[in-house]
Protein 1
Amino acid sequence: MKKTIKKYECLVYPNAKAPEEYNLEEAQAYFDWYINKIPERIDYLSGFSGVNLDYSEDSLKHIWKWFLKNAVIEKTPRSVIKELRKALTNILNLFPIM
């Protein structure tokens, strides 16, 4: 019997700009937006997983158990790894070591 995989809707900020390009005001706006989304996302994850997320230690154990049972690991294509490595190298080059 094949297991049906539910699609988890990711949280996406409605700004097309890359976070590393944010100025101080944009970064603060993103932070405020993100913090304000936490209760909504906890409700979403609770409904998605069927785990009552009530901030208790037990709820953390239950969501972790659910995650380990349901997480799907996908192989990252070499082209994506190459892009990530290049981006990381570019970022690291901004902070030269003396």
Protein 2
Amino acid sequence: MALSDFGILDHVTSSVVGFVLGTFTSWLLNSLWTFSAQLHGRLLLRFVAVTLVGLGLNVLIMACVEAMGVDYRLGLFTVLTLVPIFNFCCHRWWTYRGSFVP
């Protein structure tokens, strides 16, 4: 969080900037490397939609874990296990459907 550590941005804004840059980088690398797809706006919109649903799952899982009074590490383990699998499957079967050669 260098942006907030140096007083350039507050923590929340810095986190949003990191999320946006991370999402863009992930889209670029997944498009070019993982799925060998051409870069275009439709893919970016679908990629962002899947990413936001994944973020929602993350928040939902962590909120449920907190509400149940369970150790947060169980939530982290669940999020780190399920959300990437969910995201990859959605990208494989929806975001990049017909856009790559398996």
Protein 3
Amino acid sequence: MRRMMSEEESKKFIEEMFANAMKLEDFEIGKPFMMSKREWLCVDKGTWCVIAIQLGPRDMTQVLVDESGERTETTKVVTITAEDCKGPPYGWGCSVIDEYDFPACSKIDE
């Protein structure tokens, strides 16, 4: 049976969780970082948020409709690397990373 953390244990847990959290000034355009066990690439940085593209494998579906209206879908796995993210414009969807997401982000050792 699980027990609840004491107030002291809870404070220590939260301090440890935020100890390695990235801050806005830690993000650099063109540099990868980790968020929730996935690699991301910072492509823009504002006054309060970061714009990033998730790197790694993902499904990509192409939908074609011929002249008769028949629809054909082709799905394949593509792997996105930092070299694929030259832009703007980018060929991949971007995500907004803000202060609520920063605790889940960590630097990648170079």
Protein 4
Amino acid sequence: MSTPVGTISGKFFPPRVHTVDHTPGVGYPVHMGHHTQTDEFTAWLAAVTARVKAIREQKGLSLRAAGELTGVPFNTIARVEAGRTVPSLEVLYTLAAGYGVTPACLLCGDRRRK
């Protein structure tokens, strides 16, 4: 039996995400550690999340089906696609692997397949 995506030696490692602060009147920048999101980063992140959603929809997958395929909880995928969380590289890599695309496809729009 193969090891599911998101596991190492059969142990599941939950995806790491940073919650985006949507408190009224606060908005961006969102502080993550010592980094601050800029307008440029915010625009890039919006493009990444749009690509995550577009690829899932192109494959005809519901959020639940995408979660089962990739091993990323469907509610995490929903938060990423809605822009409510900043996905970790681990989450993006796991989604890319499950969708059969390269991580560059999600990060930069490079449409080459794995």
